[in-house]
Each structure stands twice: as C-alpha cells, then as structure tokens.
Design goal:
Rossmann fold, two-stranded parallel sheet, 12 helices, binds adenosine-5'-diphosphate, 7% strand, three-stranded parallel sheet, 55% helix
C-alpha cells in the first residue's frame, strides 16, 4: 500500500509565495509517488472573521491555484473540506479524547485570540482537533505544510496516540491511526516582505500572490525595508535585508544569493538592483502558473466536475474510517 498524504490550505483567498513554497511545492513533490488528498479547508476559514459573500469564491480560488500550480487531478484527489462532512464527525469524536487545557495553551490559539478578541469562538479553540481529524480521517502519514504548522502536527500525533491507546484494535496489533509527520520543503519558512515574521495572508504588505503581475511584484518588493548598503560584514539574521536574501536564495538559487552576499560584504550592494532582479525571477516562475490559471478560470464546469467526482471518492474513504472509529469506541452497530 502506498503511503497516504494529506494537506490543506484555508479558503481565505489567493495563494501567496509562502503557501506555494511551504505547502504546494511539497504536494507537487509527492503526488507521483504517494496516495494524495489535497484540500481547501473551508471549515477552518470560518473560525476567524470572514465574509459569507466571498467564501465560495475564495474556496474556488484555492482550487484554481492548486490546479494551475500543477496538482494533477489524475494523480491526486482534490477536496473541498465541507463536501466531506465526515471531517466534522471525526473531529467531534476525537475531541472527546483530548484535554481542553492543552488547546487553550497553544500559541496559535493565543495569537488568534489576541488578533480578534471579539471573535473567540469554539471553532477557533477546536481548530487543531479539526485539523487532526482532517489528516487522520484519511490515515495520512505525511503532511506537506510549512514549519509554522509543526505545533499542530504535534497535537495530531498526540491525538492519534491517545486514541490508539484508549481504543486498541482487537488481535491484529494494528493501530487505528498512524502518527503523521511533516513533509518538509526548502521553502518551509518564507519570510514577510515587511521584515518581520512570516509571509502571511493575514498581514497586509507581507506577501506576493501567485497571481501578481510584474509591476505589482516590483512595487511590493520596493517596500521591503533595507539599510544603507554600506555596513559590510555578514548578512543580518533578521529584518528586511535578511528576508531579501532568503527570497534571493529560494528563487534565484545559490548563485544569485552568493553574488549579493559578496556585494553586501564589500559594501557595494544596491538594493534597487537586487529587488529588480528578484522581481523578474519571481515573476518568471509565476508566468506558467498564471497562464494555466486563466485557462481554468474559463472552464468552471470542468473544475466542478473534478470536485464532484473527487468528493465522492474522498467520502468513501472517510466513511470507512468513521465506521472503524465508531466500532472501536463502542457505538451500537446494526
Ligand atoms: P496564512 O498563514 O497565509 O493564512 P495558512 O495558514 O492558510 O496561510 O497556511 C496554508 C499553508 O501554507 C500551510 O501549510 C502553511 O504552513 C503554509 N504557509 C503559510 N505561510 C507560509 C510561509 N510564510 N512560509 C512557508 N509556508 C507557509
């Protein structure tokens, strides 16, 4: 049996370079080899303030980005999370084996609480349980996501372990759930254009979208804060300059990175020039994705047909897991 891979991105609009390098590149790397399910997790998107008028469009948009980036519907299943209600059923069941205090202690929960103090809902607290249910529903072993998701993966493993321990399989020695690991990519942490933290949809000015044109990319990079260029020595560890160098490495490779490191050391770096070159290189890598996206945008029926067919396949697998879980938990079977 091939290993099962599962990953999802929230339905909060268009994908940015962080999502692409941290998550989608990982999905692309494994789709030939493993049994993959990649999702748009719309049920997670409603845990923070959102607009019901744009949720459907945002969901479709992530699917289009997935397909345009090269996820092949012949090789992997593409899922819209809310089309498979078993996610919610399993989340409830798994929620009964996990302590509330540990969820309240999670840094991601605390951050979101601080960000939206008037929107602290049960769904937000439950986020990591639903995420565990997302992957465990398909008995996923590998999860291509960025490094920021590591705490959630740890919760997932704890839940799997706890369930396996509380409800052991009779005889076979086989556990119900594997303990999922993160599939890492080179761009597992793409830094923000603001110079602080990671590139994120929720921080305005921090990101470049996969759909941005050259002028937009140039304008966004132009705003990355830099220094005088005459400091010399080693590259700073954090801030705008540090982040420009990370982007140069991720998009321009060792060669481009090395060239600008030398310039920096020798106090002759010209950030304007570096930003121009970087904009061009990023844009060139996005052009084929944007071209494929335009074709897909013109074919909504084709995309809908894929989603319908794949949802049915996903539900079949999901229902098998739910049946097994309910049996093990002792529910009445008739
Ligand atoms: P955002 O933080 O922009 O709202 P999500 O939380 O929806 O993005 O994350 C979707 C996926 O993209 C996850 O796998 C996450 O780890 C990855 N990801 C998000 N931002 C970055 C980043 N800056 N660098 C690497 N991966 C990222």
């Amino acid at each position: 049996m091939k290993k099962r891979v599962y990953s999802g991105i929230r339905a909060t609009g268009r994908l940015h370079l962080g999502n692409y390098l941290g998550a989608v590149k990982g999905m692309l790397a494994v789709q030939d080899e493993y049994d993959c399910i990649f999702s748009v997790v719309d049920l997670h998107a409603i845990t923070t303030p959102y607009d019901p008028k744009t949720l459907a469009e945002s969901t479709r948009s992530v699917i289009l980005d997935y397909l345009a980036a090269g996820l092949d519907p012949e090789k992997c299943l593409l899922e819209v999370q809310s089309f498979v209600p078993e996610h919610m059923e399993l989340a409830y069941l798994l929620g009964t084996v996990f302590p509330v205090a540990e969820l309240e202690d999670l840094p991601t929960y605390k951050d979101k609480k601080a960000q939206h103090p008037k929107y602290v809902n049960m769904g937000l607290l439950y986020y990591p349980v639903l995420m565990a249910a997302d992957v465990l529903l398909y008995k996923g072993e590998l999860v291509p996501v960025g490094i920021d998701q590591e705490p959630h993966l740890e919760i997932m493993r704890q839940i799997a372990r706890k369930f396996n321990g509380m409800f052991p399989s009779a005889g076979s020695g086989q556990v119900t759930f594997p303990e999922p690991r993160r599939f890492k990519t080179e761009g597992e942490y793409v830094p923000s254009l603001t110079g602080e933290g990671k590139m994120s949809k929720s921080v305005e000015g921090s990101y470049i979208n996969l759909t941005d044109d050259l002028e937009t990319i140039k304008a966004k990079l132009a705003k990355v804060p830099t220094d005088s260029g005459t400091l010399g020595g080693s590259i700073p560890q954090k801030g705008g300059v540090a982040n420009l160098f990370v982007l140069a490495y991720l998009f321009g490779g060792k060669e481009m990175h090395h060239k600008y490191v030398e310039d920096y050391k020798e106090k002759r770096i010209r950030y304007g020039e570096m930003k121009q070159e970087l904009s061009q290189i990023i844009y060139e890598q996005l052009v084929p994705i944007q071209e494929r996206r335009r074709v897909l945008e013109a074919n909504p029926e084709k995309v809908n047909a894929i989603l319908k067919e794949h949802a049915a396949k996903c539900r079949e697998i999901a229902q098998g897991t739910i049946k097994e879980v309910k049996e093990k938990m002792g529910f009445l079977q008739i």
